[in-house]
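Notebook entry, structure prediction.
Reason for the run: the old model in the group folder had no record of what sequence produced it. Starting over properly, with the input documented here first.
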Amino acid sequence: MFADTYLIYLVNRYGKTNERILSPKKIYAADLGIRVFFTGFRDKGSLFENYVFLKIKNQNPSYIYENGIEIDFLTDNKTLIEVKYHSDLTQKQMSLFEKLKANRRFILRNVEDLEKFLSGA
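New structure, fully documented this time:
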């Protein structure tokens, strides 16, 4: 399996044990160059989300999916992260983002936002 060789990482859905087990996993590539080679260069937003994952993977992130709305990451220390490369959250996404219990919240729209987040600012 590719996850065993660290070519990809699987991210579980946040929730109760049954939700975590039965829900589909999100897949992130360990190497963005290999990912582009196999899938082609199509979407900067998904590449940026993958890059953010690689930066936070040691924080054991999971994703949130509720009523058809997805939030990208919730880490072990209850940091909520939505990756929106040069775009904004929809009203429904913002509503979910604001209602979820979290110690910290970040919307990462570009590399500068990511650098601020990683530096703790």
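Summary: The beta strands are 8-11, 26-29, 62-66, 69-74, 79-83, 104-108.
The old model has been moved to the deprecated folder.
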